[in-house]
Each structure stands twice: as C-alpha cells, then as structure tokens.
Amino acid sequence: MPKKTIFFSSLVFVLGLALLLFFLNREHFSTTQTTKTNSAEPSAALAPRPECPETALPVSLPCLGADSVPNTSKAQYTVVSLWAWWCQPCRVELPLFDQLRNEHPEYNVIGVHADKVAAPGAQLLTDLNVELPSYHDDRGTFAAALGLPSVVPITIVFDERGTMLGYQAKAFTDYAQLEQAVASLIAGAS
Q1: Parallel, antiparallel, or unpaired for β 77-83 and 52-53?
Q2: Whole-model pTM?
C-alpha cells in the first residue's frame, strides 16, 4: 500500500476515534449534570420557615417549609413578592420585603417562590435571614392566573378581597423605592 493511503487511512481512523470519544464524553457529562440537578428534588428536606397566613388571593398554593394558618391580621392590602431562588436581583430584594413586612402592619407581605423545586427557595430565605412567609408555586399557576409576565421579581398588590390592584415587574435595590412603589400601586387603585 502506498504511504499516502496508509497516512490518510490512519488520519481518518484517528479523527473518527477522537469524534467517538468526544460524543461519548459529552453524553456522559450530560447524564452527570442531569443527575446533579435532579438531586434537589421536591422531596428534599426543607429548611423550617414561618407559617403562611391564609389569603384571599385567586390561587391556592402550599406554604414553603411550613403550614398555612388562619390570617388574624387586620391588613388592608396584601403585597406579594414573586421571586425565585436562582434570581440574583431577588436576593437583593427579599430583605427589603422583610423590612416592609416589619414596618407596615397595614400590609400583609408575603412571597411566592416560583420554581419547580422548593428546597433551594427555603434555604435561600434562611441563608438571607429573611422571615418573609412564602408560598411555593411549582407550576407557574400564580403568574398565569394573574396574566403576569414570565419574569422575576415582580411586586403585586391586592386589596383585602384578593383583587389585584397592580404590579411592577422591577427589581428593587432600595427600601424607599419599594415603599414608594407599593404606595403608588395602592393610590393608583383608589
């Protein structure tokens, strides 16, 4: 056999082997990644969280890491932070909602964690030292029922009957901005 034929045959063989190994390794990596992301299944233990007050909101959701309890608050408005554990702006904003909850007893301030897996959401609140009661929406039913955009974070305000007064799909980085936005949503509905 001529040297050129042997050389090209060897080159094709080596390239074919390299491609085979590449695709086998890629398939293995994909399987490993799937296994890692599926390890935080909903059955994972949740960090203990505050109880969630029952609300007149249009969607019934399970409480994230605790039970729902009757709402004994005299709050006239419910302020909801729609958030997710993987959302970086949410990490900045959640402590602001905790502050709003503490400084405004006239508001029932709650969160709705919008992700398929509950455990990372409960853990994030614990890590941030945020005591905001939060519900868990693993199917996106809350946002869908209200016709909200498919983004997080979103701030939504409801009256005491559960009627949505308005929302802002905006990340807040300053407490005064959040407080003003909530007041504006309430005033705009009056």
Answers
A1: unpaired
A2: 0.75
